[in-house]
Amino acid sequence: MQANLRLAPISLLLLLLVLAGGLLAAIVAGHLPSGRYWAAFVAPDPSSAGEMRVHYSVLPRLAVSLQAGAALGLAGALLQQVLRNPLASPSTLGISAGAQFALSLALLWAPSLVEAGRDLVAIAGGATAAALVLALSWRRGLEPFSVVLAGLVVGLALSAASAALVLHNERYLEGLFLWGSGALTQYDWHTAGVLWPRLLLACLCAALMPRPLAMLDVDTVAGALGVNLPLTRLAALAVAVALTAVVTAHLGVIGFVGLAAPAFVRAAGARRFWERLVWAPIAGALLLTVTDLVVQLLSDRIGVFLPTGAVTAFLGAPVLLWLLRSFKARGIPPAASRAPGRRAIAGSSARIALMLAVFGLMVWLALSLGRTPDGGWELARGPLWSELLPWRWPRVLGSTSAGALLALAGVILQRYTGNPMASPEVLGISSGAGLGLVAALFMTAEAGFASQTLFAVLGAGLSLVLILWLSSGARRSPSQFLLVGVALTAFLSTLFAVLMATGDPRMLRLLAWMSGSTYDVLPQEAVLASAAAILFLFVTPLVARWLDILPLGAETAQSLGLHLQASRVVLLVLAAAMTAAATLLVGPLTFVGLMAPHLARQMGFVHARPQLLAAAALAAMMMLAADWLGRTIDFPWQLPAGLIATLLASPALMWLLARRAA
Known about the structure:
The chain is mainly α. The protein contains 27 helices and two strands.
């Protein structure tokens, strides 16, 4: 039986190898007659376009895909062993996003650093992201769910920061976007020649660590055997970060290969660490190569460029969802069973009134205070205020309404799941609304605001139902519910990246939406959004009793006369509808749906009804501030309000993770 298990990885990898060989033969046959294969491989005829393309494009691309896949597979195996976490990988820990952000930052503001040592820049970014993830999850003993949740949040935040840099430098937009999506297109052998010595050095370092790393499985006796566990972990992490950073520096972000390859060989029967250390790089090389060869065939057939990195993430995110379904981990207690951080404070109405007064002052400033053509500041009054009002009020009304809607949905989701880290953005419901927007753009001849809203509601609802199904039992493990949502967010985000790479002009609308731009909010859209916000501000307090009871648990809720199925369906429909209406205006990632409910609770609004109202007011102020900063902070350029809100909320979100880990 053991022998059969050890032969299983070999058999499956041989199947992948045969598949890769068949795909490569099909690609080469499309460029060359059968008698010219060998000549194209070793000595191409300069007068033959087919031979030159095979020798200087197809073969170098094959070489870099094999190298990059092997490097990411090895990095994933090392990370999973060091953290004893089958969900760990360069993608889920934010290492790739950290390397991408560091390279984007250096390329835009210090290009000489990239020219002198792009590998070191990428390693610094990846190492910083990894250190941040470990710091956020250290107090919970690097528990698997805590580590991956911190990694995915850090990755989302760094990706948003990279997007802000790209949008602010439009002349670099196309190149940085394609590079960030993991484009493996090659035109010579330079990248392949640069990669192999660096990757070989890292692999040799990993080859020196099988025995001490294997001792991590029995760390209670490892010290007695002379193994320095902290040093071993640090060395393995350094090798994994270096492998990931080098690949990212030269090829861009290639998602989920580092997760899928170790999972593939583990499922095939490679139980021991040394087996995974051997087979995971081979599996990674073949998985990435097969994916890239399929991408090349599709690109040739449909005439549309597809970034391989985005496609691998699109295919690999279901692997993460499958692992989450089968992975049992120590969850966090539901919110009702934990000691509340704040007690309810008297005078909720007075404090809400004060918040509304501050909100009114902010609205007046947003409508009045702005930049002059020469870059100065001016408080508009009289005729000037009247002239500027038609340009400013739709953005103000739209952003504040969207913030209030996201906050109301966030309160519902946090109380429904019993998890203070739940929100429309983190759970993927906002991305589901984006999927509905894509459907509207492709299925309707003239996608107006009404049809977009309808499709977005359907997409958000479908996303929410899918999350509930994939995380069945999440009432017992809120962490699993949360991670399934984040994985779905990553999956849908890569789908959007693939769609935008097609060059379809309809995707320009999707690009503006993903960035959370309020530049072109029309008056009628702003009015409809505000009407929706006002409607739900009256409707959601009617279900406040349900929201107070549900966190107490199913048995308690039923004993108090609550019909669980009906109440949950109503709450989920409300959350999906509010999320869809909001994300059409401010994009999928703002984090105000997470931050505002939590801040309201920290301010003493413990019961559902005052928390709903306070969170809505706080979120409206946050989005109003983000929109105003987006149009004034870097005048005459503008940054999308959704991205500004993400950048402002991300540090607070990481602080919440650190408090949760404490």
